Amino acid sequence: MAAHLSYGKVNLNILREAARKDLREFLDKCAGSKAIVWDEYLTGPFGLIAQYSLLKEHEVEKMFTLKSGRLPSADVKNIIFFVRPRLELMDIIAENVQSEDKLHSSRDFHILFVPRRSMLCEQRLKDQGVLGSFINMDEYILDLIPYDGDLLSMEYESAFRECYLENDQTSLYHTAKGLMTLQALYGTIPQIYGKGDCARHVANMMLRMKREFAGIQNQILPVFDTLLLLDRNVDLLTPLATQLTYEGLIDEIYGINNGYVKLPPEKFAQKKQGEASKDLPTEPKKLQLNSAEELYAEIRDKNFNAVGAALSKKAKIISAAFEERHNAKTVGEIKQFVSQLPHMQAARSSLANHTSIAELVKDITTSEAFFDSLTVEQEFMTGVDTDKVNTYIEDCIAQKDPLIKILRLVCMQSVCNNGLKQKVLDYYKREILQTYGYEHLLTLHNLEKAGLLKPQTSSRNNYPTIRKTLKLWMEDANEQNPNDISYVYSGYAPLSIRLTQVLARPGWRSIEEVLKMLPGPHFEERQQLPSGLHKKRQQGENRTTLVFFLGGVTYAEIAALRFLSQMEDSGMEYIIATTKLINGTTWIKTLMDRPESHAA
Amino acid sequence: MAFVTASWNPLGEAFYRKLELYEMSWSIRDGLRDSLVAAAPYGGPIALLREPLRHSPSSRPQLEIYSASGIAITSFPWKSGPVVHLGWSVSDELLCVQEDGSVLIYDLFGSFKRHFSMGQEVVQSQVLEAKVFHSPYGTGIAIVTGSSRFTLATNIEDLKLRRLPEVPGLQGKPASWVVLTQDRQTKVLLSIGPELYILDNTSCTAVCPPGLSPHAGSIVHMSVSFSYKYLSLFTDSGHLWAGLSNLQEKLIEFDTKKTDRPKQMLWCRRPKSQQPSVVLMWERLLLVVGECNDTIQFPVVDVSFLVGELDGVRIINSTNQELLQEVPLVCQDIFKIASMAPGALLLEAHREYEKSSQKADEYLREIKEQNVLEKAVQQCVEAAAHEYDPATQKSLMRAASFGKCFLTDFCSDHFVSTCRELRVLNAVRESSVGMPLTHTQFKQMTLQVLIDRLLFRQFYPLAIEICRYLKIPDYQGVNRVLKHWASCKVQQKELSDDAIARAVCVKVGESPGVSYSHIAAKAYECGRTELAIKLLDFEPRSGEQVPLLLKMKRSHLALNKAVESGDTDLVYMVVTHLKNEMNRGDFFMTLRNQPVALSLYRQFCKLQEQETLKDLYNQDDNHQELANYYVTVSYREKRLESRLSQLQNAVDEYNKAKNDFAAKATEEEMRLLRFQRKLDDEKGAGLLGLSLQVTMETLLSLGLHKQAEQLYRDFKVPDKRYWWLKLKSLAEKEEWEELEKFSKSKKSPIGYLAFVETCIKYNNRYEAKKYISKVTPEQKVKAHLAVG
């Protein structure tokens, strides 16, 4: 079921199994039949750890969504709340419990806090007078969730906002804890590099926690050689750009949530003979996207322009495989052919799905609007006219294009120009307020606070220096047979990944100047290993680096890292971890503030 | 070497030996006469109370504590009531049982720790006799009172007094009694005349030892073995009976021909004993009676005291201390005269080898011919473990090492560990330390306990050496020692806080697993809060620091620590604590110095206490956030006037924050709201709350061109955007004439391709064509293509 997690260089299934074991143990603590009341936010992340079947094996009979009022009736012995430690959720739980007591008195209540229990929440339950109603109160430490064979995510959506807008570093504490858990399972990571304030903070906490745990020495041979912690605000540009890999585009257009995408159903209608076409499905088609699907693993990180060719090549291989049946003469040959059938049929349906998805994506990417917008993005990234009001953005505002699109472009211009002239900035802001409404004043303020929008203060725009030193723009990006990571944005090489690449070779010392221009400190720490655990590397054996993006990472960045892992001479394998998988839209959304209107 | 067997005495088939352990370092004037003596087993400390029953207040009895080698640890005058019995607990604490039934507990260094009572009724009836005993449950105490009642406590750490049933016919105390631990039950075995009774929780049962002659007389003394498995009885006719303590079997019956009661009687056994014996001591005689009814007699020259051990009996008198034990079989095999055991041959071979004699080869050949070399090595190693004299140990180990050379695939683990253990044992046996442990005792009590006992004695450097030498993982070894040391250090009243903190820090450093908060809690218990705070500074686990700091009312510090930890929940906990503890002003001031805590509290307020949020911003003069706050609030107002007044507040704050843009934007919003309200009232246009753009759009669609125009001018809408708006609006309503007029009003800021495309969008090719001519040359192709 989760075999794809163990294919990579690091077997992430160990982590998943550890998480499943904890879950089973908790469920078994509450003897008898159970109903789970879910904090809705958690259902997605939990789906990556355990399917319903696991819960069912442990007598979970019903599942509800947490909402205020009375709990739905269910003939079970235990009611278990799976919640994040948030005060507003405690109030709902209290309401649930209070209205419940009068009806049934025989049901037992339990709370499972994810990822950590909180004294504040317990105090709130106590104040509400329901703390005593809970038989079990436990925490389910789910910091890093295995997302794919080389990818871990905390699925902590608000991490960036909390860190940069609210100065709330809870997510970083969870990150540090998660990394400690990871080290408990995969060995102490001997080298830690980092760039950015949050990275520094996480590293400090890790070193501190290591002292706390010390004594109980970790005797596991380290799997990871290096940990690289990167703040998202070191590279604000990359997420703003439109991703051009297959997976990146699916996410940009349809949004991938906890590994699933919902697609318009029309293209997936099964056309069977004799059936009228009126029964078109209306429910969106939900597909799981991960490396368990062979074809998807093959094409997801390609530039979208190379996907068509890959799909048609695959189509030929599959039909050739089906043609084989004509060559099967003997009973043995036929038998062998039949035994391969299920695999071939799966491949064929996978091919059909991705052909449909590719068609959907292509409809968008070939549109004029997409092209225009991409052109402007690329102008900004290459530093063309970033210091004046952009006509395309102006037109888009006049056409009332979606606000987020506007914000992405304006922010991008600001980032690529190291801030906008006050006049230009005010002009954009005014345009946005007049067109989309005054209430967005708060959002604009947030974007300024996060550094995405800013007035130019220093006289010099250092983006061109950064771009040149790190070779962020490659004129002749090869989309079909890439030789550089810049293919993921058809020319733009993500800054974050360039930093990673340079760290591996030739080292950050070569780019001191640029590092100083980027926000926050850069640092290196070493963690002492017990003697005897020092790796004896085989000739030609790759080193493994865990790259942790604090504040989110895009699919295109992941694709770029996978590309680096696969490069023959890189000598480095990358495992990726992040607080949340993001794209420009989801990211900007978390930074928006909308005052609730009570006006008539 | 040659004299190993000189101290051996045969007893039946076996041998007994008396090893001198120490010449006692103490100098006690009257010897052990008239003293209450308690010596802990496993080579533990010795307590002496001189003339315990002297009541005169002018000359109080002296309580003295010595190491087993007689080095004085402490002594002090006994100021409490008369003591009946002294005993040691398993954790080297001295228990003093007083006549009135109270038990006072002291540590090794004579500092009083606590006390408890054996029951109220005892105060009246008084304790006649008491015994301290050890069982798997810990240290126990049993007493018999003046009213002939027994009371038991099986574990002094978890005190539960059990008053045993009355013994029929008992007057005063019984002639003799012992405590037995059998089948997880603690019982008392007692004698009245010739009768023997077992007293347990519920009843008193008469029992009869098998094979005890009915004419043996009254039982006047009894004792149980170290393991509680064996019992010995002595009668007033001089009969000794010994057997299993469950009274199923008799092992010895012997007539000592001495009618006076022995001062002490003890079992002398060892694991895998060949010839267990009972040792009896009178004024001038020590008698060892074996199972074979053979005896050994030793004269007693000085007042002595016997201590029963797992594998022998220690004999302590005022000048020296000896260990009487059965010679272990393997030692007998090796050292017995003319022994041909493999080990004996190997030892001989090595001896010849050292003399460079070729006889070495002959002996070795003999061993190898019998194919017993491995056995020989093992015997030597084993025997070395049992020998007390380092020279003997060495010669045996060297022989073993020599033999090893001729063996292939020999696993030397046992050899190595024995070497190490012997070094440790020799170190603790040193007179200056004074723990005369045999290897057998050491194995039984385990290394952990040995280290604990070194810690009780405060032999910290030695304990650390041992831990390092035996490579015990730090968290079980060195760190445990350091923790103990530090906890002890903080209680040293004569040293300053700084000195102690520095000393602790230098020694403990960052040793993982040493809990500074534990040490700090100790310091706090001793009333040294400042020291505790200094020590807490070194604690890496903030989760541990914070609660103690709060307990010590150091809230500010607790807050700092919580923030340092990064654990936001911990910060919240302290903040909540502070909020309840302080007045609002102080609370805010405290937060102000802790930006992280302040941000977290703001987060909390955003969700829970909006009003407080405002106060917080106010206090910090954070005009920008305060303005944002007012903006947020304005949306919640139902009435326009209130909404406007909130926005006015926002304007004021934005001005204070020198955010001209926001101030102006807010003012414009207010103007727009007023305008919308006016039109809504006049025309029912439903504009309130719409953006400027949508307002103009709505106005145009309602045909209110003049009003739209007014907004366009008043709010300085860029021409481009207004032209787009008007173009789309007119096309949508298909007011083509109006559109044409508009196109000619001035030069289009958005060009004319937009006109062509918009007309096409609304399916009017005819109108579209009108604008083609005006399209710029570069866009002309596109325009023609659009029209088709």
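qc> Residues 722-788 of chain B form one domain.
qc> done
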